[in-house]
Amino acid sequence: MNKTFLVVALIVVAALGIWYFTSQSQAPAVNETENVGGNGTVEEATDGGNVITFTGTGFSPGILTVKAGETVKFVNSSDGNFWPASAMHPTHTVYPGSGIEKCDTAERESIFDACDGIAPGGSYEFTFNEVGEWGYHNHLDAKFFGKVVVE
Ligand SMILES: [Cu+2]
């Protein structure tokens, strides 16, 4: 009886040890995710990697600086749809020529407005030709916003 108990106890301790070791070895994956969020710097932006990532807690980086004529990719890394669009909500008319009412027209492709919800994992790209500081937001949850500075 005592022997059986010892064997069982040893197995439990071994299992806990393996579980603990496995948990520890998974920890670096979290750090990698954090690094991805921090990679959206201005320096990388000049390499053509103008990426703004949307997570459930906001856009990162909050301010991205690019050169006129460069394309910015808005990536949806959240678990719900997102809809990046020019300020101001709900009209989206701050970026020159833009406006949510144009989503139903042929001009849709040329305005700073995704014009639709984009699923998790999807992305929206826009080429900024106008110099200035352009605010944008998630039209589906307008408390999330950011800014693209075009030099
Ligand atoms: Cu809006």
Structural description of this entry:
It comes from Candidatus Colwellbacteria bacterium GWA2_46_10. This is EfeO-type cupredoxin-like domain-containing protein. The chain has helices at residues 2-38, 42-45, and strands spanning 51-55, 58-60, 63-66, 70-76, 84-86, 123-128, 132-138, 145-150. It is an alpha/beta fold. It folds into two domains: 1-38; 40-150, Sandwich (Immunoglobulin-like). The strands form two sheets. Strands 2-1-4-6 form a four-stranded mixed sheet, with no helix packed on it. A four-stranded mixed sheet has the order 3-8-7-5, with no helix packed on it. The longest helix is centred in the N-terminal third of the chain and has 37 residues, at 2-38. The radius of gyration is 23 Å and the shape is elongated. 23% of the residues are buried.
Offer a quick outline of the entry.
It comes from Candidatus Colwellbacteria bacterium GWA2_46_10. The chain has about 150 residues and is an alpha/beta fold. It has helices at about 1-40, 40-45; strands spanning about 50-55, 60, 65, 70-75, 85, 125-130, 130-140, 145-150.
Features:
2 domains, Immunoglobulin-like, alpha/beta, 8 strands, single chain, binds copper (II) ion, 4-stranded mixed beta sheet, 2 helices, 151 residues, elongated
